[in-house]
Design a protein that fits this description.
elongated; 46% helix; two-stranded antiparallel ribbon; 91 residues; mainly alpha; 5 helices
Length: 91
């Protein structure tokens, strides 16, 4: 089974509060991203880009592994074997 990484908003908000950033605006300013991005991330409505993950991790000294843990199993799509379409190939 493949896994889907999930953004850990709780890790971000805990680190942000520890340095006095209690609003989405303050977090966005420190990380250099849009306030709406932080709002959507914290609400679980979007998946962060790699650039956003790096910006947040760098701003708060968080390991990337800590921001994307909480893996949830996801079934892998399977491909069916090709069918014989009955077409003859000339020799």
């Amino acid at each position: 089974m493949a896994t889907t990484l999930r953004f850990r908003a709780d890790v971000l908000t805990t680190k942000a509060e520890a340095v006095g950033d209690t609003t989405h605006y303050a977090i966005a300013q420190r990380a250099g991203v849009r306030e709406s991005t932080i709002s959507r991330l914290v609400a679980g409505r979007t998946v962060p880009t790699v650039a956003t993950l790096f910006a947040i991790a760098d701003a708060y000294g968080i390991d990337l592994d800590d921001l994307v843990t909480g893996r949830v199993p996801r079934p892998v799509a399977t491909l069916s074997a090709p069918r014989d379409c009955g077409e003859k190939v000339p020799a």
